[in-house]
Inverse folding.
C-alpha cells in the first residue's frame, strides 16, 4: 500500500505537467485560426475570433454612423453614410495585427496590455457626392465668396456709406479634410472661424479704405442743436449732402486736405431748420379743450430764430469741426422752446362760451366765466398772444373812461385780463350787450388767482 502511494505521488506532477502542456498547445492551436488571448481592436474583444468576424463587427460600428457637423452658430448638420455610398474595411489592418501575433506565445498577453490596438480602416466613398454635401453645409454656403470682391463709397438715404464685399471666406479644402476625418472618427466635426481665410485687399480697394477712414471723421456727428423739446443731431445723412464731388466722382479737398463743403447748401439747410421752428406771425392750428381744431391767423406770440447768426455759425462749425451741443440764438422766444412752443401751460379763452381755462402743466388750474369785448363795437379779436405785463392797482384809460382795477395782465396792445367790479354778471351772453372795450373781464377772485399763478410770457389763445 505504501509502495502504491509513493508511486502515485511520483507520477502526479508529471501527469499535471503533461496536462498543462497539452492544454497550452491546444489553446495555441485554437489561436492559430483567430486572434490571440486578450486581443482588443478599437474597443472590440477579438480573442478567438477570425478576421472576417472582427471586420464585420467593426464595420457595423462605423458604416451606420452619420458624420456629425457642429457649426459656429450652434446648429448641427449630418452627412449620412448612404448619401455618399460610404464603405469601410479593416481587413488589411487586422491581418497586420494577426501577423505580428505568435499563437504559441499567447501567454505573454496576460501581462501585455498593449495587446489592445486602435487602427484606422481603409474606406471608400463617392468623392462627387461628398463634395456636393460639403458644398451645401450652411457654414460653407454662408462663407463662400464667388464674386469678385470690391470696395466703394456710395451715397445712400443715410448718407455716405462704405460698401465692402471683402470678407473672410471658407477654406473649403480644410473643411473637406475635416469631414473625411469624421468618416472614421466618433468625434463630431467642429467648424469654427479657424476654417476661414482672411481676404487680401487689392491696392485700389486699399485706397478706398484709406479715403473712407478720412471721410468717417467728417461724417461722425459732432454738432447737436438743442431746440428745447427736440435735440437735433447733425448726422451723416445731413453732412453728406454738403460734400462737393468733382466730375471724376472723387471728393473735392481743400488745400489742407480737408473735405470741401458746399456753403450754399449748408446755409439752405440751416435756414430751413430755423424756419421749421419759426411760429411768430404764422397761422396756427390750435386744438381746443373740446378737441376742435381752430385756425388762428392773428398770431402775436411765438418763436423767431436769428437765421443770419445761425447760418454763419453752422458754416463755421462745419469748416472747423466744432463739437458741442448748441443752443441757437433767438430774435423772439416762446414760453417754451420746441416745435410746440405753447407747451402745456397756457390760458385758453373760448369767447363763444365766455369761459377761461388756465392750464398748468397740462392740468386745469382755473376755470371761470368771463365777459369779452362787445361784438360789432369792440369785439375781442381771435388771436394767439402772451402775457407781456402784470400790474396791481392799475387805472385803465380810454377815450371816454378811466377804470380802476386791482389786477391787470396785458396780453396785446391795450387788451388785457383784469377784474371788473362794474360787471354784475359774467358768462352767458352778457358780452353781447355789456361787453368790454376788448379786454377780458373777470371776477376779482378769479383775476387774483390767475395773477398770482402765471408768469410773464405765458401763451394766451383766444377764439370763437
Amino acid at each position: 500500500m505504501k509502495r502504491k502511494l509513493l508511486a502515485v505521488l511520483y507520477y502526479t506532477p508529471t501527469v499535471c505537467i503533461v496536462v498543462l502542456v497539452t492544454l497550452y498547445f491546444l489553446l495555441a492551436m485554437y489561436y492559430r485560426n483567430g486572434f490571440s488571448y486578450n486581443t482588443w481592436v478599437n474597443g472590440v474583444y477579438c480573442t478567438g475570433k477570425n478576421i472576417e468576424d472582427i471586420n464585420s463587427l467593426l464595420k457595423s460600428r462605423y458604416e451606420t454612423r452619420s458624420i456629425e457637423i457642429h457649426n459656429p452658430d450652434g446648429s448641427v448638420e449630418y452627412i449620412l453614410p448612404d448619401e455618399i455610398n460610404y464603405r469601410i474595411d479593416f481587413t488589411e489592418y487586422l491581418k497586420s495585427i494577426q501577423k505580428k501575433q505568435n499563437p504559441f506565445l499567447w501567454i505573454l498577453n496576460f501581462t501585455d496590455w498593449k495587446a489592445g490596438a486602435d487602427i484606422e480602416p481603409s474606406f471608400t466613398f463617392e468623392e462627387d457626392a461628398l463634395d456636393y454635401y460639403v458644398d451645401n453645409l450652411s457654414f460653407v454656403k454662408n462663407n463662400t465668396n464667388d464674386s469678385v470682391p470690391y470696395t466703394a463709397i456710395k451715397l445712400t438715404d443715410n448718407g455716405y456709406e462704405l460698401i465692402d464685399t471683402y470678407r473672410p471666406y471658407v477654406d473649403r479644402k480644410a473643411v473637406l479634410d475635416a469631414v473625411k476625418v469624421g468618416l472614421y472618427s466618433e468625434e463630431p466635426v467642429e467648424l469654427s472661424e479657424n476654417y476661414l481665410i482672411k481676404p487680401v485687399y487689392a491696392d485700389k480697394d486699399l485706397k478706398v479704405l484709406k479715403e473712407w477712414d478720412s471721410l468717417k471723421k467728417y461724417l461722425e456727428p459732432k454738432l447737436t442743436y438743442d431746440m428745447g423739446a427736440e435735440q437735433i443731431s447733425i448726422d451723416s445723412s445731413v453732412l453728406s449732402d454738403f460734400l462737393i464731388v468733382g466730375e471724376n466722382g472723387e471728393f473735392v479737398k481743400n488745400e489742407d486736405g480737408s473735405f470741401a463743403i458746399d456753403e450754399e447748401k449748408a446755409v439752405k439747410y440751416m435756414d430751413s431748420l430755423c424756419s421749421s421752428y419759426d411760429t411768430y406771425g404764422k397761422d396756427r392750428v390750435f386744438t381746443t379743450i373740446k378737441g376742435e381744431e381752430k385756425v388762428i391767423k392773428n398770431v402775436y406770440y411765438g418763436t423767431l430764430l436769428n437765421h443770419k447768426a445761425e447760418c454763419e455759425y453752422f458754416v463755421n462749425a462745419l469748416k472747423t469741426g466744432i463739437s458741442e451741443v448748441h443752443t441757437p440764438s433767438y430774435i423772439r422766444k416762446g414760453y417754451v422752446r420746441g416745435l410746440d412752443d405753447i407747451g402745456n401751460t397756457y390760458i385758453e379763452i373760448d369767447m363763444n362760451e365766455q369761459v377761461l381755462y388756465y392750464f398748468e402743466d397740462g392740468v386745469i388750474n382755473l376755470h371761470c366765466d368771463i365777459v369779452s369785448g362787445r361784438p360789432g363795437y369792440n369785439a375781442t379779436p381771435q388771436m394767439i398772444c402772451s402775457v407781456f405785463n402784470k400790474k396791481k392797482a392799475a387805472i385803465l384809460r380810454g377815450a371816454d373812461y378811466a377804470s380802476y382795477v386791482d389786477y391787470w395782465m396785458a396780453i396785446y396792445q391795450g387788451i388785457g385780463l383784469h377784474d371788473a367790479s362794474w360787471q354784475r354778471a359774467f358768462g352767458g351772453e352778457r358780452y353781447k350787450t355789456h361787453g368790454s372795450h376788448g379786454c377780458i373781464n373777470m371776477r376779482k377772485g378769479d383775476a387774483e388767482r390767475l395773477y398770482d399763478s402765471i408768469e410773464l410770457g405765458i401763451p394766451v389763445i383766444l377764439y370763437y
